[in-house]
Each structure stands twice: as structure tokens, then as C-alpha cells.
Amino acid sequence: MLLEIEGLSGGYGSGDVVKDVSCSADAGEILCLVGPNGCGKTTLFRLLLGMLQQSAGSIRIDGRDTSALSQRELAQLVAYIPQYHTPVFSYTVLDVVMMGRAAHFSAFSAPRAADREAAFAALEKLHIAQLANKSYMSLSGGQRQMAIIARAICQSARLLVMDEPAANLDFANHQRLMDVAVELAARGYCVVMSTHAPEDPASIGSRVLLMRGGRVAAFGAPGEVITPENLERVYGIEMDVVTVRDRYGKERTICLPLSAAGTREG
């Protein structure tokens, strides 16, 4: 198992926000984190990335306990893809992607030809090599997100952590990003992604961690976790989970919040 989290607790000093969380995911899988605002998803990511100290439990990546790793060693195992990224300077897309190689050379050395080749290869994997020499600041929101994913690929980490990557994207770019996540998993990456859309894991996820109040509300396969009962318990409103087939015959899951007004008789 590439990622193993057992009994993990931690927070910001005044108390634990994440409490006794256990979950796992392997190479080739997508683990989706779902839950309402304030449920602990972002804190769990910060613990996973070594940005916060855990108070209990363990995180193992490829069998290595992250508490015993330096930030440099951790960066070689896990890459972070933020929700939104704005650089201080007007870098080219290629420059931004090459920043992913920082964990592989010292602070006083410059990127080598091999690092530049790795950056181009990452851009080609996402079919955006034509953007290499464009200013990152000039890109659309969807293009920026693709460039940041390319930077993560360039980092050569097997575990990719995506913090609500589609939050600022339009409908079409949201779907493109979901397709990219599936493609990355098919190439052997382990993708850990938080989302506010409970139908996302039902459509693309291998495993789902549903959180409430910093704890595990449910963990398992999407069909076992994304149910009306679980969603109502976590979000506090009535929900329907409906499965339909699209025009190509593929099953799609839709999660529908129900309005109390809709049940009243006229």
C-alpha cells in the first residue's frame, strides 16, 4: 500500500482538528476526501505534507514513516497541487514546471538539462507543451491548474495531493481535470484529492474518505460511502443519490440536495 494513515490526530496547537483518522490508498488509485467546510480535510492534507505536527498516529508513504523524513525526502515522495497558485514574478510555464525539480538538486545549484527535459516531458503528458514559453500569469484558470499538475509530475513523486483542484474552474475545465486525475491514476500515481462535490468520487474515485468534525464518518468504495444516509448524516440535509446513464451508456452518479419546500402540498 503506497499511502497508509493510521489513528492520525493533529491540529494547530490549541487542540486536535483531525482526530483518529485512518485510511489508505495504493498506486493507481484515487482517494477522494469529502465533507462540509471545517470538517478537517485541509488539516489532514497539512499533516500529510509535514506542514503540521501530528499528536498521535502515523503516516507511511511507500512503507516510510513521514515523521522520520526531512522535508526534502518527503518532497521526493509526495507532491502538492494547491487550489490556486499565483507566483510573485512573471515566470514562463516551463520555469514554473521546473520548480518541481527543486527537491532533486541543492539550493546552490541551477537546473540541469535533465531537469529541463523532465519539465518538457511533464507538459507533454498533459498535452500542454505548446504553453511552455508563455507567461504563467497570462494563462486561464484551467491552464494554470494543468501547469501546476505538470509541476507535480516533474517532481517525480508517486503520491499527488490535490486540494480542491476544481474549485475555481468552470464546468468544462472541471471535467477535464477529473479526466486528468483518472489518467494519472492509470499511469500508476496515487492521487489524493479533496472535493466539495460528492458525485466526483462516485464517478472517478477508487476510495472515499467522508469526514465530519475531524473524524472519519465513512471510508471505503464510492458505492458504499456515497449514500443518502451517509450524506444526510454529514451535511445535515436530505440528499438523494441517483445513478443515470449518459448518451454513451456510462453510469454517472448525481447527488441531489432536497428542499423541504418541495415536499409541501400546494
Identify the notable features of this structure and list them briefly.
266 residues; alpha/beta; Rossmann fold; 2 domains; six-stranded mixed β-sheet; four-stranded antiparallel β-sheet
Describe the structure.
The protein has 2 domains: 1-77 and 162-218, P-loop containing nucleotide triphosphate hydrolases (Rossmann fold, 3-Layer(aba) Sandwich); 80-156, no CATH class. Helix content is 30%, strand content 28%. The chain is built from 9 helices and 12 strands. The strands form 3 sheets. The protein has a 6-stranded mixed beta sheet with strand order 6-7-8-3-9-10, sandwiched between helices. A 4-stranded antiparallel beta sheet has the order 2-1-4-5, with helices on one face. Helix 4 (113-125) packs across helix 5. The N and C termini lie far apart (55 Å).
Going by CATH, the homologous superfamily of the largest domain would be P-loop containing nucleotide triphosphate hydrolases
Structural class: alpha/beta
The CATH class assignment of the largest domain is Alpha Beta
Number of domains: 2
Strand line-up in the sheet with most strands: 6-7-8-3-9-10
What is the C-alpha radius of gyration, as a whole number of Å?
A: 19 Å
Total count of helical runs of at least 4 residues: 9
Write the layout of secondary structure elements.
Blueprint: E1 3-11, E2 16-25, E3 30-34, H1 41-48, E4 54-61, E5 64-65, H2 71-75, E6 78-81, H3 93-98, H4 113-125, H5 141-154, E7 159-163, H6 171-186, E8 190-195, H7 199-204, E9 207-212, E10 215-220, H8 222-225, H9 228-235, E11 239-245, E12 251-257
Parallel strand pairs: 3-8, 3-9, 6-7, 7-8
Antiparallel strand pairs: 1-2, 1-4, 4-5, 9-10, 11-12
Helix pairs in contact: 4-5
